[in-house]
Amino acid sequence: MKALITLILTTLFVAACGTVPAHDKPDVHRVISITDTQEACGIVPVTMVYEDAQGQRHELHYQVWANGCSGN
Prior knowledge:
elongated; 3 strands; alpha+beta; Spermidine Synthase, Chain: A, domain 2; 1 helix; 3-stranded antiparallel beta sheet
């Protein structure tokens, strides 16, 4: 009986894990826009708007070190 329960739970776990794709990189087919940081100084938020291979639009938010500081 324990073996049957273990088998069922393992099967459900494998089925659940198999339906979620594991990606370490976004599916960027075409970049639409990226926040301009030329005038910014220090760590600033950036948004990249892109389309994936299926044509759906996504926004990726991250931070960058901008080098627009005058006098440095």
